[in-house]
Design brief:
The structure is a single chain. The chain is mostly helical. The chain contains nine helices and two strands; from the N terminus they run H-H-H-H-H-E-E-H-H-H-H. The chain folds into two domains: 167 residues, Orthogonal Bundle (Hypothetical protein af1432); 51 residues, no CATH class. Strands 1-2 form a two-stranded antiparallel ribbon. Strand 1 and strand 2 form a beta hairpin. The protein is globular, with a radius of gyration of 18 Å. The relative contact order is 0.13. The model has no long low-confidence stretch (mean pLDDT 91).
C-alpha cells in the first residue's frame, strides 16, 4: 500500500475543486509557511503513524489513513441507512485522508524500526501543522473542523458535525484496533518464539500473527515468521 491508494480514494470526492485540493496535498505534502530539512525524516509513504504504539512501522501512516477513510465511509453508510440522516461524504473523505498527513514531518528515524521527533516535531505538532495548511490552501470550513476535531475531547474543539464525529470515531477505531492487535501479536511472538520486540518489522502484520496462532498454534507462528524476525 502506498500514497497512490490514498489518491484513488480521493478520486471519489464529487466536488472537483475539493478533490483537486486533496489530491494536490497528497501528491506533494509540503508545508506552505514552514521550511524544514531533516535527512532522517521519512517521506509520507514510509512514515509510521506513531512513534511507539499504533501503526508504529514503516508505511504505517498510509495504512492507518487508508483504513480510517474506509471505516469512516462505512460509518457514513450505516448512519444514513439506520438513522435516516444525510452525510457529506466529500467532507468525510477529505478530512479522513488529511487528518494525520503531516505526522511524517514530525518524526525522524533514529535507526530501522525506531522513531523519534524531528527538529520540526520538537516545536510543532501534526494537528497544528495540518490546520494551518488547510487554512492557507482555503479548504472548506467543514473539512477544517472535521480535521481539528478528530481527537475528540482531546481536540482544540469537539466534533460538532456528523462528518467530524464520523472521522473522530473512525480514526479512534482503527488506531485502537491496531494497537490492541500489536500488543497481542507481541505476546504471541514472545510465547511462541521467545522474542520480545519493541516494534514489529513492516513485513510482520500483527493481524496475521494473531491469525497464524489461531490456525496452527505456535508451530504455525514459527513457520510463517521465524525468517522475518
Amino acid at each position: 500500500m502506498n500514497e497512490q491508494s490514498l489518491i484513488e480514494i480521493a478520486g471519489e470526492i464529487k466536488d472537483s475543486e475539493l478533490r483537486e485540493k486533496v489530491v494536490s496535498l497528497l501528491k506533494d505534502p509540503r508545508l506552505t509557511l514552514i521550511e524544514f530539512q531533516n535527512s532522517v525524516t521519512p517521506p509520507l509513504g514510509k512514515a509510521p503513524a506513531s512513534k511507539r504504539r499504533h501503526h508504529s512501522y514503516e508505511t504505517g501512516l498510509v495504512v492507518h489513513t487508508y483504513a480510517t477513510t474506509r471505516v469512516a465511509l462505512a460509518c457514513a453508510e450505516i448512519l444514513e441507512g439506520a438513522y435516516g440522516v444525510k452525510v457529506d461524504r466529500d467532507v468525510v473523505i477529505a478530512a479522513s485522508l488529511l487528518h494525520d498527513i503531516f505526522k511524517y514531518a514530525t518524526y525522524s528515524q533514529t535507526y530501522p524500526g525506531k522513531y523519534g521527533r524531528s527538529k520540526l516535531g520538537e516545536r510543532m505538532d501534526h494537528l497544528s501543522l495540518i490546520l494551518a495548511e488547510l487554512y492557507v490552501r482555503k479548504f472548506p470550513l467543514d473539512v477544517i473542523h472535521a480535521v481539528a476535531a478528530h481527537h475528540g475531547d482531546a481536540s482544540p474543539i469537539e466534533p460538532r458535525t456528523l462528518e467530524a464525529l464520523i472521522v473522530h470515531l473512525a480514526d479512534n477505531l482503527d488506531a485502537e484496533m491496531n494497537d490492541k492487535a500489536f500488543f497481542a501479536a507481541k505476546d504471541i511472538l514472545r510465547e511462541c518464539m521467545g522474542v520480545d520486540l519493541v516494534t514489529l518489522p513492516k513485513e510482520v502484520s500483527p493481524f496475521k500473527v494473531i491469525l497464524a496462532k489461531k490456525e496452527g498454534g505456535c508451530e504455525e507462528v514459527r513457520r510463517r515468521f521465524s525468517s522475518l524476525l
